[in-house]
Design goal:
By secondary structure, the chain is of the alpha/beta class. It has 17 helices and 19 strands. The chain has a seven-stranded mixed beta sheet with strand order 5-4-3-2-1-14-15. Helix 7 packs parallel to helix 8 and helix 9 crosses helix 10. 49% of the residues are buried.
């Protein structure tokens, strides 16, 4: 066992960036044990794991279940016993309950026991977070004396909020700040995390280690990318994004405090690569953690289904992806050629199931009910619903999860069919606007993402990217027949959804007032559809579902 005297000037900390699963307490405990064994082999004194790691994050209402809380407590106590071997101590997150309530907590484990517990003070209650619903706020914490080093351990939001947790820890004698996090991904969030951490380095004069969870949990993706700053504001290390890893760092006591000189610097991806890898990781974990062997999707020859097929193959491998083209009388020759070319480029299974007969059957069954009415959108939607039924039948027969493929632009304005193309278990592009889908398709053709199981090169045929988008529900139809051009539509939607701007402010950007009013109206009346949509990866700061919760019954319009 390393003596305390040896640690006064040198301290080796392992940062565990791993992928827990909510509710899989045994599996998460096993991961923590594997990480500790690895840290021990590398000579670490302490292993820092992430927020609520034992439970998985966010556990939501699971923490209301006494049996779940007892199992989490037992896992932490079992892990504490492991530390009697004299190897690394552990800081690990878990949900804690006592006579005063439930807490989002961390346990410090060493010498075969739980040597300290600290509770989260600042409970987030915005966007995707609603911790105040299930947890109580903890008391302002003091430092933990671990083998002669005084550690401040604020938990995630404790460094994001304004309660002064870090300052209190510094004033109480903390020598460094170790922060277990469950910080979900959205575009450009790395810059924000760095700024938050640097703020506390400036205010406290202490180094800060930011350990972040990795992996997909329903709609959220945790991207890892753990890092640290030295007291002089220089970056001590930067861990990789979207990859499980353990990083052992050596800290030495210097004139201005504890400093790390050997942490390593991983490359962080640019915005497009990060978005694509977030979609890939979120999709892979949703499929695998929920026990699906394979997936099926309708490959229409359009760009949305093409990029979903690419993400699926990259995430799961070609042998687990099945694509079905379901042509009708309005399906163009181009679409048939493009869909097959896409499937061949990706190497996945491809089949054609025509829908002429099913649609005829529906129309025949409804002929008396519809007698005297004119054909219109109802008959068009029967095409989509026939396709949805076929995909669900394949799902039921073979145990495949249906991938739904609507983008955020379409989901915003209701350009999608309930019980038709909205059928499915998960949507990897649900939070990508149409123009972002185009941009990521071009990016994927030029790059093979790290960790992707699909082929390199052009996997989305150029004609799919270049041609006018169309649902092909009637002759010569294009999306722009009933919607503004996508660059215009996406900008208006981003203003309405992400920025909550007024109509007046959006018009001032150069948009036509009637168009803005129409888009706003479509956005509001499609709420009922979105409530019935499949979950999908969160990419923007405000996704539909966890972040944006508008009433279905809503008479407000900005006039």
């Amino acid at each position: 066992m390393t003596e305390i005297a040896d640690l006064k000037n040198t301290f080796r900390i392992a940062i565990g960036q791993f992928n827990p699963t909510v509710g899989d307490i045994k599996g998460n405990l096993a991961k923590a044990r594997e990480a500790r064994a690895d840290a021990a082999r590398q000579g670490a004194d302490l292993l820092l794991m992430t927020e609520l790691f034992i439970a998985g994050y966010p556990p939501e209402d699971l923490v209301l279940k006494p049996a779940f809380m007892r199992a989490c407590k037992a896992a932490v106590e079992s892990l504490a016993e492991d530390t009697a071997d004299g190897g690394p101590g552990i800081i690990i997150g878990f949900p804690r309950e006592d006579e005063t309530g439930r807490y989002n907590s961390i346990a410090v484990l060493d010498q075969g026991r739980i040597v300290a517990v600290r509770d989260k003070v600042d409970l987030p209650n915005y966007s995707e977070f609603d911790e105040k619903r299930v947890f109580r706020a903890g008391a302002m914490p003091g430092p933990v004396n671990f083998r002669g080093v005084r550690l401040g351990i604020p938990i995630c939001e404790d460094i994001w909020g304004e309660l002064g947790v870090c300052e209190t820890l510094a004033e109480s004698g903390a020598e460094m700040l170790l922060v277990p996090n469950g910080s979900p991904y959205y575009r450009n969030k790395m810059d924000i995390r760095h700024q938050i951490a640097l703020k506390h380095v400036l205010e406290t004069g202490l180094p800060i280690i930011y350990a972040n969870q990795l992996g997909g949990q329903d709609e959220l993706v945790f991207d890892g990318a753990s890092f640290a700053f030295n007291p002089d504001k220089s970056m001590a290390f930067q861990m990789s994004q979207f990859e499980e890893t353990l990083n052992v760092t050596t800290w030495t006591r210097e004139a201005d405090g504890w400093t790390c000189r050997d942490g390593g610097m991983s490359r962080l991806p640019d915005d497009q690569e990060a978005d694509y890898r977030a979609c890939m990781l979120g999709f892979r974990d949703y499929v695998n953690k929920n026990g699906f062997r394979n997936v099926v999707l309708g490959l229409s020859g359009g760009i949305d289904s093409a990029i979903c097929a690419a993400i699926a193959v990259d995430a799961l491998g070609e042998e687990r992806v099945r694509c079905i083209m379901m042509p009708y009388r309005y399906t163009s020759r181009d679409s048939l050629v493009d869909a097959e070319a896409c499937a061949r480029a990706l190497g996945c299974r491809y089949e054609i199931v025509p829908i002429e007969e099913p649609v005829k059957g529906f129309l025949s069954a409804l002929s008396e009910v519809f007698e005297g009415t004119e054909e219109g959108i109802t008959e068009e939607n029967l095409q989509s619903r026939a396709r949805g039924t076929i995909l669900m039948a394949v799902s039921n027969k073979f145990g495949s999860m249906v991938v739904t493929t609507g983008n955020k632009s379409e989901m915003s304005v209701g350009y999608c069919t309930l019980y038709g193309d909205m059928n499915g278990g998960f949507n990897p592009i649900k939070d990508l606007y149409k123009m972002q889908v185009y941009a990521l398709s071009r990016w994927r053709n030029a790059h093979l993402p790290p960790g992707a199981l699909g082929p390199g090169g052009e996997v989305i045929p150029k004609n799919i990217i270049d041609k006018a988008p169309s649902a092909e529900l009637r002759p010569n139809q294009t999306d722009q027949d009933s919607l503004p051009p996508y660059p215009v539509l996406d900008d208006i939607l981003e203003c309405l959804v992400e920025k909550e701007m007024s109509v007046e402010e959006i018009v001032a950007r150069g948009h036509d007032v009637a168009t803005v009013h129409r888009v706003e109206h479509l956005l509001y009346i499609a709420e009922y559809k979105r409530r019935q949509s499949a979950p999908g990866v969160k990419i923007t700061r405000k996704n539909f579902g966890r972040d944006r919760r508008y009433p279905i019954t809503n008479r407000f319009r900005d006039r």
